[in-house]
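ligand=iron/sulfur cluster
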Amino acid sequence: MNKFKIEATPERCTGCLICQLVCSEIYTKRFNPSMARIKVDILGVDCLISFTEECNECGVCVDHCLYGALKKIPREKRK
Ligand code: SF4
Ligand code: SF4
């Protein structure tokens, strides 16, 4: 599986939580945002985006963000 450095642009985040839903569905088979490896905290009009230590940098959450708040940058393959 490819690895990506995930860059977040919180200013673009709407707080829709699609990223958390897809991550939790893939890795826990449940649509439960609290079980996701990406965390979006909504603080009034601002969003804070972070990742847990379990994040394996697969980039799937990026592929499902409709608002351009996440970006994936390929990591060089380790030998
Ligand atoms: S990062 Fe993208 S998918 Fe996740 S809550 Fe923000 S806008 Fe939605
Ligand atoms: S990169 Fe993969 S493991 Fe990490 S938060 Fe996104 S979907 Fe989950």
